Amino acid sequence: MPTTPSLSLRNLLLAALLGLAAVPAFAERADRDKPTLIDSDTLQYDDVRQVSVFTGNVVLTKGTLIIRSDRMELREDAEGYQTGIATANKGKQVFVRQKREGVEEYTEGTSDRTEYEGKTERIFFIDKALVKRLACGVVQDEIRGQVVIYDQRTETYSAQGGPRSPQANQRVRTVIQSKTAGTTEAPSGPPATACPPAASNTAKPAAPAAAKPAAPASKPAAPAAGARQ
């Protein structure tokens, strides 16, 4: 990967990881064995350098992992590991979504630039980064910062503030929703569609059969002509 300003920032962040709190994320483990699929409007491929550049409505899919961007540069090393750099046009952001292991929960993130490392199984959200956890489509908690690192292998993520944080005070902001009513700050963005209610296995009792009305009593026969009353 070529040297960029974001890489020096990454080195600074990695050096400080031991001093940062780590929060469980539980990525879908089966994703690592799935093929990488990329849709785009255009593709430029350099076989000598093993570099592919995708532009226009780029969508990378690897199992439950989805990365949407306007441009993506994908490199492959001699061992076959892939490294991707995704960027968005002005006024837009890169979008990432991945299912968590064993539960109906997803991790979603947005940033101006996103870097994916296949060998270390890490995703770097760089500049105006926002990462949130959704359970059944409802935002449970989120973290904002200049850089957020999502480690799929160790199932943790870490963050650092800075001048390109979405927060006005340039610090890391973490929102953890209360399990009871009365939260003081709502998570950003509208929640997705909630999980449908579980189907009941209890059989409904059969409706009672409607009783047929009794047949009306027959009228007495008319007396025969000439018979005495």
How is the topology of this model organized?
Elements: H1 5-15, E1 23-24, E2 37-39, E3 42-46, E4 51-62, E5 65-76, E6 82-87, E7 94-99, E8 105-111, E9 113-117, E10 122-135, E11 138-151, E12 156-160, E13 173-176
Report what the structure shows:
By secondary structure, the chain is mainly beta. The chain has a single domain, classed as lipopolysaccharide transport protein A fold (Sandwich). The chain contains one helix and 13 strands. It is globular, with a radius of gyration of 31 Å.
What is the overall silhouette? globular
Neighbour order of strands in the largest sheet: 5-6-9-10-8-7
**Architecture in CATH?**
Sandwich
CATH class: Mainly Beta
Query: Could you tell me how far the N terminus lies from the C terminus, measured between alpha carbons in angstroms?
Result: 121 Å
Q: Write down the Rg.
A: 31 Å
The tally of helices reads: 1
| Low-confidence residue ranges | 1-26, 190-194, 199-203
Number of E-type strands: 13
Fraction of residues in H or I helices:
under 10%
What is the assigned CATH homologous superfamily?
Answer: Lipopolysaccharide (LPS) transport protein A like domain
CATH topology: lipopolysaccharide transport protein A fold
Structural class: mainly beta
Q: Strand percentage, roughly?
A: 35-45%
How many individual domains?
A: 1
Q: Mind describing the biggest β-sheet?
A: 6 strands, antiparallel, barrel
Order of helices and strands: HEEEEEEEEEEEEE
What does the average pLDDT come to?
A: 77
